[in-house]
Design goal:
This protein is an alpha/beta fold. 43% of the residues lie in helices and 15% in strands. The chain has twelve helices and 13 strands. Strands 3-2-1-4-5-6-11 form a seven-stranded parallel β-sheet, sandwiched between helices. The protein binds uridine-5'-diphosphate-4-deoxy-4-fluoro-alpha-D-galactose (UFG).
Length: 362
């Protein structure tokens, strides 16, 4: 008996050391585009990861990709976070989670205009369930996927974290603004919960292995997958939405960031929270490259690096588009000690390699 209790104590001691070293992170939306790349970077950084996703906009193929890249099979739970009972069952099963990175959300701007309640219900209920359950399961840290959409068309460029929030132009954008407000209020009311909201600019590209990448369901809404699908012949023609904007070449300007650079920022942010290096209980960072690139420049650069000619034509403006936006990244660079490493050329090539691989063409 004495021997057993000694052994048990030793086991508990080792386990506590192990827990200390192997912090466990729940990644919601972990099979999606940014989620899957973040899971890879977390595993590479030595974290234990639990993936939750309802697969509404992603496939389990990304789990195989993650395993092939890292050699680790992270536990996966197919769960809808709006189902609080199922969500709680996940937290009961995977005890001692140290932090959550919350990606799970709908993100199609146009669809959100047509079906606002779908967006308000899904994006807000899942977040509220998460914030409600976190204290009960001793989880104190949450990294939240936000968007530069909260800035609308900023008056001054590049846009800093202090730039005023503009009225949202879509229910999707509204859910990002409301989510940030909900988190701010919950953090203020709690003496334990800390959070970092990351405002993404335009994530594109794919992992260098081409084993994971962006997999839009149906016709892509975003420019990058539309470009690669046109280049490979899935789409006949790419429409450029407007060349009469007040920009040097008349097309809209965005800040396109490599998804792997973006994923790495999540590792930095979540460790900052878990190691209590955050300066405030709720912090916000812009994640971009700091460089604005026009739609036409993106097309030209893609053609140059891939050698593929794109069939495109200029059409009318897309409703609700922001004319130009790019990030001031100095706060993230200085405070997180993070910066983007990939060039635009590398980023575009990685997106192309991924498109070729999923079409068994390269
Ligand atoms: N564009 C085209 N043709 C297309 C698709 C897009 O010309 O077929 C143009 C758009 O008009 C825009 C630019 O390419 O000027 C980028 O458009 P995306 O749809 O790729 O990206 P957005 O900047 O409009 O939106 C993205 C995310 C949103 C997010 C927003 C701001 O998709 O979820 O960034 O964060 F809200």
């Amino acid at each position: 008996m004495k021997e057993k209790s000694k052994k048990f104590k030793y086991f508990t001691y080792i386990r506590s050391k192990f827990d200390y070293i192997m912090k466990k992170i729940l990644v919601t939306g972990g099979t999606g585009f940014i989620g899957s790349h973040t899971v890879v970077e977390l595993i590479n950084a030595g974290y234990e990861v639990v993936i939750a996703d309802n697969l509404s906009n992603s496939k389990t193929g990304s789990l195989e990709g993650i395993e092939q890249i890292t050699g680790v099979k992270a536990p996966f739970e197919r769960v809808d976070l709006c189902d609080k009972v199922a969500f709680e069952a996940l937290l009961k099963k995977h005890r001692s989670i140290n932090a959550v990175i919350h990606f799970a959300a709908f993100k199609a701007v146009g669809e959100s205009v047509e079906q606002p309640l779908k967006y308000y219900h899904n994006n807000l209920t899942s977040l509220i369930n998460l914030l409600d359950l976190m204290p009960q399961y001793g989880i104190e840290n949450i990294v939240f996927s936000s968007s530069c959409t909260v800035y609308g068309q900023p008056e001054q460029l590049p846009v800093t974290e202090q730039s005023p929030i503009q009225p949202a132009t879509s229910p999707y954008g509204q859910t990002k603004q409301i989510s940030e407000t909900i988190i701010r209020d919950v953090v203020a009311a709690s003496d334990r919960i800390k959070s970092i909201a990351l405002r993404y600019f335009n994530p594109i590209g794919a992992h260098a292995s081409a084993l994971i990448g962006e997999l839009p369901v149906g016709t892509p809404n975003n420019l990058m997958p539309f470009i690669t699908q046109t280049a490979i012949g899935i789409r006949e023609q790419l429409n450029v939405f407007g060349n009469d904007y007040n920009t040097p070449d008349g097309s809209c300007i965005r800040d396109y960031i490599h998804v792997v650079d973006l994923a790495k920022a999540h590792v930095t942010a979540v460790s900052r929270l878990m190691e209590n290096r955050n300066k405030k209980p709720f912090e916000i960072f812009n994640l971009g490259t700091g460089t604005g690139v026009s739609v036409l420049e993106l097309i030209t650069t893609f053609e140059k690096v891939t050698g593929v000619k794109l069939n495109y034509r200029i059409v009318g403006r897309r409703a609700g588009d922001t004319e130009q936006v790019w990030a001031d990244t100095s706060f993230a660079n200085n405070e997180l000690g993070w910066k983007t490493l990939s060039t635009l050329e590398e980023t575009l090539l990685s997106a192309w390699n991924w498109e070729k691989r999923i079409n068994n063409n390269g």
